[in-house]
Amino acid sequence: MNPHIDASVAEIERAAFQLRRLWAKPQLLQRLREQCGHGGRPIQLSSLLVIHAIAGQGGAGHGDVTVGAVADFLDIDPSTASRLVGHATDAGFVSRTSSPVDARRAHLRLTEAGDRVRALTDEFRRRFIAQLVADWSEEDRRMFAHLLGRFAEAAANFPTNAGGLEAVGLGAEPELESARRPDE
């Protein structure tokens, strides 16, 4: 481990990695799909992400969201966002209409089915987290919520341009080259 990074940073890194894996566990995704499925078709994780992105920007009936806004919200390439929005639209979770001002832009809204999935998944995640922290004191939950929110905000606002990546040591190609397998 780098001697300039303290042990608590390493603990945070491991915990963040575990949290990411938490939502990718097949059993959890299967339960979400079973609870939110419609017409016998399973829900794809990508559709859940699009639903979350649209709802997070007021698109659950309160305003319009564009494909570009979904790309920004999910921190993905616009062409990838367009494909994911297409899948969510085909599944019946998103409606897509042309902008009256600029026909090149699409305005997205959750359909009734999309809003139902959003509500079910929000409730599922909250119940799951409530179970995980059920034996924590109210003060511990409040402090954790504050610190995790602060951490998430810092991560979301960290610049991923060349300067930001160099600041964390990802601009140094020789180190990356030495980490690659010989057969690459």
From TrEMBL:
InterPro entries found in the cross-reference section: HTH_MarR-typ, MarR/SlyA-like, WH-like_DNA-bd_sf, WH_DNA-bd_sf
Q: Name one GO molecular function term.
A: DNA-binding transcription factor activity
According to its UniProt entry, the protein's GO biological process terms are: response to stress
Q: Enumerate the Pfam families for this protein.
A: MarR_2
Q: Which SMART domains match?
A: HTH_MARR (SM00347)
Query: Which protein are we looking at?
Result: HTH marR-type domain-containing protein
Judging by the UniProt lineage, the source's domain of life is Bacteria
Source organism phylogeny: Bacteria, Bacillati, Actinomycetota, Actinomycetes, Streptosporangiales
In terms of Gene3D superfamilies, this protein maps to: Winged helix-like DNA-binding domain superfamily/Winged helix DNA-binding domain
HTH marR-type domain span: 9-153
